[in-house]
GTP cyclohydrolase 1
Amino acid sequence: MDLEKIESAVYQILEAIGEDPNRSGLQDTPKRVARMYAEIFSGVEKDPAEHAKVVFHEDTDEIVLVKDIPFYSTCEHHLVPFFGVGHIAYMPKDGQVIGLSKLARILDEVSKKPQIQERITTTVADILMEHLDPQGVMVVLEAEHMCMTMRGVKKPGSKTVTSAVRGAFKQSFKSRSEVLELIKL
């Protein structure tokens, strides 16, 4: 990531909006923003699928759900944050399970780039289907988008919910309903 280029761009933005980038409160802002961008866009150069490569064997084929996983991303249309919680469920096949923290890490890395919520949802589901080869995967994300809260329509508190349903969860209404009920608990 080119931090100097980010600093220069932020300096120019401050000038363009009519601010003095050299005043005391703004002098270090370009550097701070560059460091922040390095952190919040750290997923740009990473492969989140790396977290799905270590699997374990456990004699189970029952639903595994990690819910209420906080995530943060940046809207690729307006470069403002959106944030919420993710719920990731899968049904192991042949006893192949993944460490629970890996589900959160995959969501985290997919989110850390300019994104849209729909793409995050499908990418997480596709990574798990491809690398874990489960019977099914279900990913549900709920998020508040600052592009709807602080600008445009200005509707704070509104939530966007997206889902990606694969395999057994797509084929079986009963399994899909069970995951949704578990998310509500």
Notes: The helical segments are 3-16, 29-40, 100-111, 117-132, 146-149, 168-171, 173-184. The longest strand covers residues 64-75. The chain has a mean pLDDT of 96. Residues 3 and 34 are 5 Å apart (CA to CA).
